[in-house]
Write a structure and sequence with these properties.
The protein is an alpha/beta fold and about 210 residues long. The chain has six helices and six strands; from the N terminus they run βαβαβαβααβαβ. A four-stranded parallel β-sheet has the order 1-2-3-4, covered by helices on one side. Helix 1 links the parallel strand 1 and strand 2. Helix 5 packs parallel to helix 6. It is globular, with a radius of gyration of 17 Å.
Length: about 210
């Protein structure tokens, strides 16, 4: 499976061609008619299982009413599940839990000072159980990971061990992210979240990915 952030009409076709069987299609801007049209058309592709409107933009890039209307509009237009994404701590707000068909937060132990992979995985599971206890909707963590460098204590081995530990918990999660993105430089760790390096060579973690 694959999760995207912005609407691109080529991605479902290409993803299917290379072997992906499921996709959560992103709409970056809830107010964009262009993205909405692309998302609606993409719903015809069987690989598209649902939609994610917005990402960490509530009360900054868009307001709650705009987001709610966009989710409802896309749900009605496609007949498929739709949700949004904010940081997991934001879901203490009941209005956010009411939006969408499932709960899909970003949850990063690094930003809560958990770098040791065993402790980071345990912390991630605690956040998952805490959030799941607040809703009857399915909970799936959208961004979960540990950078492979950029700070003391981080390494490819630690990143791999974090995911190995996390796979043994009750957490349902998406691996974040596919490739290192060197343009993300606002923090030293930001270019180093990938399962693969920017040259597409695999990091240690790849050996622990589920195989089919």
């Amino acid at each position: 499976g694959i999760v995207t952030y912005g609407a691109n009409e080529m991605i479902p076709r290409v993803a299917k061609e290379v072997g992906f069987t499921g996709m959560l299609f992103g709409v970056w801007n809830p107010s964009s008619e262009e993205e909405f049209a692309i998302a609606k058309a993409s719903a015809q592709n069987e690989i598209v299982l649902g939609f994610v409107v917005g990402n960490e933009g509530l009360d900054e890039r868009y307001d709650s009413e705009t987001l709610k209307q966009a989710i409802e509009k896309l749900s009605q237009a496609t007949g498929k599940p739709v949700t949004t994404t904010e940081q997991h701590t934001d879901y203490s707000n009941p209005r956010l839990l009411e939006l969408g068909d499932w709960v899909f937060p970003n949850t990063h132990p690094y930003f809560h000072r958990f770098i040791d992979p065993v402790e980071a995985a345990a912390w991630t599971e605690r956040q998952y159980k805490k959030l799941a206890s607040k809703t009857k909707k399915p909970v799936l963590f959208k961004e979960v990971g540990l950078p492979s460098e950029g700070d003391e204590g981080l390494s490819e081995q630690a990143q791999a061990e974090y995911y190995r530990q996390l796979q043994q918990t009750s957490v349902h999660f998406v691996y974040f992210e596919a490739f290192d993105q060197l343009w993300k430089t606002h923090l030293p760790v930001e270019p180093h979240w990938g399962l693969f390096r920017s040259d597409r060579t695999p990091k240690w973690v790849v050996k622990y990915l589920p195989q089919k």
